[in-house]
């Protein structure tokens, strides 16, 4: 498996469920998830809309390289398992095509070392 770092520093923010988010664009990656209780936005810190209830800055985004078939299993586990053992926290997002794992910038080098030790390469 190969991971690719997406440039930029990312934030994870929580908004009220009634939030109207307009003009939210990303250079390469952005995720918006809405539930009855909240709206979560993951995007580059500098592009994050105002009005959030909470936010967590300092994330780096890693993308699983390639399009993943829905029949594949254990993809996220191959990434998150070793990171959990190393006590490196993550925030995961999946799209139709692939998976993204965000790690704190301060843990990036340690995360890369752990993942490379477990057969994952970075491109």
Structure, described:
The structure is a single chain. With 123 residues, this protein is of the alpha+beta class. It has 2 helices and 7 strands. Strands 1, 2, 3, 4, 5, 6 and 7 form a 7-stranded mixed sheet that branches. It is globular, with a radius of gyration of 15 Å. The model has no long low-confidence stretch (mean pLDDT 91).
Observed structural traits:
single chain, 123 residues, alpha+beta, 7-stranded mixed beta sheet, 2 helices, 17% helix, globular
Structural class of the helices, strands and pairings?
A: alpha+beta
Strand % is 35-45%
In round numbers, the mean pLDDT is: 91
Could you give the order of the helices and strands? EEEEHEEHE
Q: What about the largest sheet?
A: 7 strands, mixed
Poorly predicted ranges: none
What's the total count of β strands? 7
Helix content: 10-25%
Radius of gyration equals 15 Å
What is the global morphology? Answer: globular
Q: What is the end-to-end distance? A: 10 Å
Total number of helices: 2
């Amino acid at each position: 498996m190969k991971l690719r770092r997406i440039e930029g520093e990312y934030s994870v923010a929580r908004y009220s469920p009634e939030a109207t988010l307009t003009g939210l664009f990303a250079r390469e990656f952005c995720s918006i998830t809405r539930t009855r209780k909240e709206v979560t936005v993951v995007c580059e810190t500098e592009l994050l809309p105002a009005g959030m209830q909470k936010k967590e800055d300092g994330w780096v985004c890693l993308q699983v390289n390639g399009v993943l078939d829905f029949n594949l299993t254990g993809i996220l586990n191959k990434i998150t398992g070793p990171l959990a053992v190393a006590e490196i926290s993550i925030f995961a997002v999946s799209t139709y095509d692939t998976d993204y794992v965000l790690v704190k910038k301060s843990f990036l080098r340690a995360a890369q070392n752990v993942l490379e030790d477990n057969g994952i390469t970075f491109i």
